[in-house]
Design goal:
Elements: H1 3-18, E1 33-39, H2 60-67, E2 70-71, E3 75-76, H3 82-91, H4 115-121, E4 125-132, E5 154-159, H5 170-175, E6 189-191, E7 194-196, H6 203-217, E8 223-228, H7 241-246, H8 271-279, H9 286-313, E9 320-326, H10 350-353, E10 354-355, E11 357-360, E12 369-370, E13 375-376, H11 380-387, E14 412-417, E15 420-425, E16 428-431, E17 457-460, H12 476-493
Helix pairs in contact: 2-9, 6-9
Bound molecules: calcium ion.
Calcium ion (CA) is lined by residues 40-41, 82, 233, 327-328.
Amino acid sequence: MNQSIKYAILSVAIAILFGCSAQKNQSNEQRPNVLLIVSDDQGYADFSPFQNHSPEVSTPNLERLAESGMIFPQAYTTAPVCSPSRAGLNTGKYQFRWDEKASWGPGLPDTVKTIAEYLKEAGYTTARIGKSDFGTNYHRFDVREYPLNHGYDEFLGFSAHAHDYWLNSEEIAQRTPDPNGTSAHLGPLMHNNTYKSYPKGYLTDIFTDEAIQYVKTKRDQPFFLTLAYNSVHHVIHEVPQKYLDKYQVKPIHNYDPDSMETFGNQPPGSYSAYYEKYTRLGAIQDEDMRKYYLANLNCLDDNIGRILDALKKEGLDKNTLIVYISDNGGSPITGALNAPLSAGKYSLWEGGIRVPMAISWPAKVKAGSTNTGYVSAVDILPTIAEAAGVTLTDGTIDGKNLLADASGSDRLLVWKWGNTWAVRSGPWKLTNTNESWGKGRPSNYYIKPISNDLSLKLFNLENDPGERINLAEQMPEKVQELQNAYTNWCSENIGKY
Ligand SMILES: [Ca+2]
């Protein structure tokens, strides 16, 4: 097929799918603003735009965002935990191309470009607010992983796995023996080349306030804003009082170095002791954990509403491309729910990698639509690039533009996570994944996966999204075919980036 025919077919397909005219000359149109919103550890069932969401979940502002555009009920991240997933999301590549061990800390190589770098080169003004996490080189300004060193003009947030929601001041950091533990982190936020202390305020609100301010300031130029909330990641119980009241659950005291007792291997007085205590089931039990989680999520949803209102007020709502995604599946030990999927964060079961996702762009994307194909977080970079008019010439990008090709029936998706792996092709998924509870036993909200060994399991996800019926023994040829596909992909691509 020659190029012009291909282009004509593609243009018609886009016009049909997204209700826009194929005749329009994109170069004469104003480039869209781009807002990438990332939530943290949000469960598949904890996103009310999806059918069959948990009945106790109400996220009306996420519904408003989703109804203005397209939802993706089969959206995957490239890893079941924060850091590698975010590496894939930011680069459009499977992070195990360069991190062959498929670890918690892939980092960001100098040669791998990020979305922010592409957009900055194209003339966008860029900012990141919230969490920055590549699993390595935390808390440092002088590394590739720091947002100012991979395409962002501005950064306000934290470079760590997690941050306290309430304790964001210099004063508390001074009194804490371990403000920069690997996971446990509190104190002032990193702001460009220095720190910004917040003696008061709740982190989800702070990030939104700063994002709204950014939108107002940059309203006259195309901007790329990444708003990466740490909600709904633990420490999940830290929620403003009005939400605790709504979900009828008691407040738990904030960390105080003078009164913190020892916990596990963590010394008395340490923030690590507080963090560990409340990231495991025990100090908080299942039923209350779910309430804290729902309260935390409700606050996040209200904040999403605030940023949507701000875009509308500035007249930017029509021509802003918003991508919303969770960085991995819900963590049952923090009260998330992934039903009807199996398992959750930390594993390659569907509950670990299939996540809430929606795209809104009223000027281009048809409202109220659903993409029924299976897509990946690596698709976000090519999608945003296309919207911004950026041509990608890098042959090792694993994603594709979701606004040009809504189908996903014949592509191969691959996952590598420690000694586990998975592939998806059509309705089929082959994986050797095992059980992984993370930091504790499965909660009442955990749907127990069917196996805890590393043998190969085959599922037809169209008929069996919960991965209950292992077809491996019945279909050895399909197992072989998918195993070969995985092996071939690895031999052709690992180490190339
Ligand atoms: Ca996460």
